[in-house]
Specification:
The chain is of the alpha/beta class. It is built from eleven helices and 20 strands. Helix content is 29%, strand content 25%. The mean pLDDT is 94.
């Protein structure tokens, strides 16, 4: 057994792990990166980038079909499923190769391949090596789960880790899970000509906590995707296809060529033997940690990225990795930024800052409809709803949005909320005309009781 000592050990070479390694290294710590696979990030390999490549093709097909509404005549639209999926994979591989270059650039003697297992709060075993570290960052990511109810048709089930490897488009697809991943891919495949049905036990889409925005988003998205919400699904194999039956808010059954399971991504923590660390764990076995420092209690163990099951989006994984690595190496943690999440459907769905369920007493709410916005009318993007939240003192604290190009609205809101701007000052900013951004001014004025 070989003994090795280091200042900071980072477990996992995904987005959070790579940023944690870089931050600790830049702080001057003797840093070791441990990876059991080939390295690389969920975003490039399975998530953000291939899904957006598929969405780009879907939006192109959708734009071609609706061009007539602008007086533009096109011929029949034909979607070449094999070409679409080949382009998705080519782009995915390109982005993934770039991330691997960053991983491979780390000196070989600062990388260790294998599965890490704790044997104490400051010790790890990786193969035949025992590692003694001053601080340890857990950045092991998360993995998709497939419900046991799909066991009878497991051969027809995909997750976001495998769906981009299909050679061509199926005729029909069942999507289980109306979160951001399921919602984005459901609409993408539907716009590419696949008959898509979306199932979920809840009636919330894209994580929208505001009931009015959720209702608006459901109304818009159900025009393209059949939605079966508030139902429980069972499956059986039938003539090479998957026969799904559902009960709950409604009942029925239907056969599908493929199933996409988008029912959650729990953290990958089982191999770590966290019971040997003395850390406080939640009911799911995830370490409790400070969201500002990423430190677990008063230990020298930190959690970053999806391994912590908190704000599982790339910018939080990257920033969380940097914070964990920096604090593990003796640095100071910055402030916690407002929550910010985007679902890249059409309309796009955005949640920023304080959510509807957590609004304080006396909160003010203002709203605006894209149907009343000149630019949205011109662009034929009138679906959705914008809702802004302020506290009783008039400070902007949150928003929930379903609107075209909402990603751009969300970034401005996140900055305004972080800077503590008042709703009155926000409404008084320069809002160029005609733009979709004017929706924010209209909602702010509505919250203030102005016309």
């Amino acid at each position: 057994m070989e003994d090795r000592r280091c200042g900071v050990a980072v477990i996992g070479a995904g987005t959070a792990g790579l940023h944690a390694y870089e931050a600790a290294w830049n702080m001057g710590a003797d840093t070791l990166l441990i990876e059991q696979g080939s390295g690389g990030t969920t975003c490039t390999r399975y998530g953000c980038m291939p899904s957006k490549a598929l969405l780009a093709a879907a939006h192109a097909a959708h734009a071609a079909r609706r061009a007539g509404g602008f007086g533009i005549r096109t011929g029949d639209i034909h979607v070449d499923g094999e070409a679409v999926m080949a382009r998705v994979r080519a782009l995915r591989d390109r982005f993934f190769a770039a991330v691997l270059e960053d991983y491979d650039a780390i000196p070989a003697d600062h990388r260790l391949h294998g599965t890490a297992c704790f044997t104490g709060p400051d010790r790890l075993v990786v193969g035949d090596t025992t590692i003694h570290a001053d601080a340890i960052v857990i950045a092991t990511g998360a993995r998709p789960i497939v419900p046991e109810s799909l066991d009878p048709v497991r051969a027809l089930v995909h997750t976001h880790e495998t769906i981009f490897d299909i050679e061509t488009l199926p005729r029909s697809l069942a999507v289980l899970g109306a979160g951001p991943v399921g919602l984005e891919l459901a609409q993408a495949f539907a716009r590419l000509g696949v008959a898509v049905t979306l199932f979920d036990e809840d009636d919330i889409v894209g994580g929208l906590g505001d009931p009015q925005v959720n209702a608006s988003a459901r109304a818009a998205l159900s025009q393209e995707v059949t939605m079966r919400l508030g139902v429980t699904v069972t499956a059986e194999a039938q003539d090479g296809r998957a026969r799904l039956s559902w009960t709950g808010a409604e009942a029925g059954s239907e056969s599908f060529d493929l199933i996409l399971a988008a029912t959650g991504r729990p953290p990958c923590l089982d191999p770590l033997a966290l019971d040997t660390t003395g850390l406080a764990l939640d009911d799911h076995g995830t370490p409790l940690f400070d969201h500002r420092t990423r430190r677990c209690g008063d230990s020298a163990i930190f959690v970053a990225g999806d391994a912590g099951s908190w704000r599982p989006v790339l910018h939080e994984a990257a920033r969380g990795g940097r914070i964990a690595g920096m604090v593990a190496a003796g640095g100071e943690a910055p402030r916690v930024l407002p929550a910010f999440a985007i679902t890249f459907t059409d309309p796009q769905l955005v949640e920023v800052g304080t959510g509807f369920a957590d609004l304080p007493d006396g909160a003010r709410i203002g709203e605006a409809k894209p149907a009343d916005n000149g630019r949205a009318v011109i662009e034929r993007t009138t679906e959705g709803l914008v809702r802004l939240y302020a506290d009783r003192d008039g400070r902007l604290i949150g928003a929930s949005i379903a609107a075209a190009e909402a990603e751009h609205l969300g970034h401005g809101l996140a900055l305004a909320i972080d800077r503590g701007i008042s709703m009155a000052d926000f409404a008084d900013q320069p809002w160029y005309h005609p733009t979709l951004e004017e929706l924010l001014q209209q909602a702010a004025r509505d919250a203030l009781g102005e016309d």
